[in-house]
């Protein structure tokens, strides 16, 4: 006879999780005033703080997921490290959470399970036995949150391991340089 153990873990409400996930997604430009010292004393200059790729460095991984060019660069970096299954799984889970139809939930859950979690999965992700076993036991009747724990583990793995290396990579430096060049062109070509 099979009995299920239900473990209740503290979870933040979904709106707070989404806020954490998307707070740094905004691509805003901030202007600040700087008072000159020395011979130019009293003169104020306005400087624009760059956002976009340069602002990823101190911020979390979330921002890169929201920006198409950043996501593409991060995916390419993960592919070069043979760990692109992590971002693919994370993105598949994000898409899965938007599913409304119970029929589609079941089919999408099975696809994610077969591709990333099940025995002999072609893009198997690195998660602990307990999480994998819990998903395996419940995949026959999946819920919209059935991959949350695995997604959290993979997100943390990328945030603590892959993403810091990406920020030090040549790919990231090239992306920052391209973005800066694009900004410079726009200053000289105001019609762009």
TrEMBL record:
UniProt xrefs under SUPFAM superfamilies: Regulator of G-protein signaling, RGS
Domain of life: Eukaryota
PROSITE patterns referenced in this protein's UniProt entry, alphabetically: RGS
Pfam families linked: RGS
RGS domain span: 60-176
Protein known as: Regulator of G protein signaling 21
Species of the source: Crocodylus porosus (Saltwater crocodile)
């Amino acid at each position: 006879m099979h009995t299920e153990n239900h473990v209740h873990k503290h979870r933040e409400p979904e709106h707070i999780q989404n806020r954490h996930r998307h707070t740094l997604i905004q691509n805003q430009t901030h202007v600040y005033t700087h008072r000159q010292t020395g011979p130019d004393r009293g003169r104020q200059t306005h400087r624009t703080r760059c956002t976009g790729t340069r602002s990823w460095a101190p911020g979390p991984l979330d921002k890169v997921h929201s920006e198409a060019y950043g996501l593409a660069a991060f995916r390419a970096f993960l592919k070069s490290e043979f760990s692109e299954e992590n971002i693919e799984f994370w993105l598949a889970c994000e898409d899965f959470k938007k599913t409304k139809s119970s029929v589609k939930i079941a089919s999408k859950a099975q696809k994610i399970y077969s591709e990333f979690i099940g025995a002999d999965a072609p893009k198997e992700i690195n998660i602990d036995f307990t999480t994998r076993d819990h998903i395996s036991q419940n995949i026959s009747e999946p819920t919209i949150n059935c991959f949350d724990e695995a997604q959290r583990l993979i997100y943390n793995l990328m945030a603590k391991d892959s993403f810091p290396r990406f920020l030090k990579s040549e790919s990231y430096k090239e992306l920052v340089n391209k973005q800066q060049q694009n900004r410079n062109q726009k200053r000289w070509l105001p019609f762009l």
